[in-house]
């Protein structure tokens, strides 16, 4: 029944521990577990066999550390992600798949993926994406003024 899962949830909270320290942020085992579970579901949904639990944990731990570092760097540079930004990004992903947000959420649910989880992933990856964009722009401005001018026209 539901009692056992509540007990299980309580136990996991009890034994939650830090799997990585990234400057002033910590990554908890529960976060890692969630990430591993989510990616495992995605791999299975696409008809592939996920790597071993150990490999997957290690990969996701690395990814979470990278995301945390990038989020920290972004924050230092004043990049903040608003809900509006998030919705725009999600809408863009949905449109690339020929859907609106509601259909997109429904499609994800059908694959056993939580829309809110995807939203959080986008939120976590956002700083990295906008940092990369800034760094690319900075390089473009340095290397080739003509290309830089052209790319400015398109934005």
Description:
With 155 residues, the chain is mainly alpha-helical. The protein is 75% helix and 6% strand. It contains seven helices and two strands; from the N terminus they run αββαααααα. It has helices at residues 2-14, 29-45, 53-76, 83-96, 101-110, 115-143, 145-154; strands at 18-22, 25-28. The protein has a two-stranded antiparallel sheet. A hairpin with a 2-residue loop joins β1 and β2. α3 packs across α6 (115-143), α4 packs across α6 (115-143) and α6 packs antiparallel against α7 (145-154). It is globular and about 45 Å long. The mean pLDDT is 78.
Uncertain ranges? none
> Average pLDDT, to the nearest integer?
78
Order of helices and strands: HEEHHHHHH
In helices, the fraction of residues equals over 70%
Task: Let me know the number of strands.
Answer: 2
Strand-residue fraction?
A: 5-15%
SS content category: mainly alpha
Q: Specify Rg, calculated over alpha carbons.
A: 19 Å
**Taking strands numbered 1, 2, ... along the chain, how are they ordered across the largest sheet?**
1-2
Shape designation: globular
Termini distance? Answer: 54 Å
Count of DSSP-assigned helices: 7
Q: For the report, how would you describe the main beta sheet?
A: 2 strands, antiparallel
What labels would you give this structure?
155 residues; mainly alpha; single chain; two-stranded antiparallel sheet
């Amino acid at each position: 029944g539901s009692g056992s899962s509540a007990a299980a949830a309580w136990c996991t909270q009890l034994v939650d521990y830090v799997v990585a320290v990234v400057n002033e942020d910590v990554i908890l085992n529960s976060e890692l577990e969630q990430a591993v579970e989510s990616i495992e579901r995605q791999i299975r949904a696409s008809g592939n066999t996920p790597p071993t639990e150990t490999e997957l944990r290690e990969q996701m731990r690395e990814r979470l550390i990278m995301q945390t570092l990038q989020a920290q760097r972004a924050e230092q540079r004043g990049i903040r992600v608003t809900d509006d930004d998030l919705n725009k990004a999600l809408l863009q992903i949905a449109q690339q798949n020929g859907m609106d947000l509601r259909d997109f959420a429904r499609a994800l649910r059908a694959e056993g993926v939580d829309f809110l989880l995807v939203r959080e992933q986008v939120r976590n990856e956002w700083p990295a994406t906008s940092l990369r964009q800034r760094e690319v722009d900075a390089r473009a401005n340095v290397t080739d003024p003509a290309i830089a001018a052209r790319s400015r026209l398109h934005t």
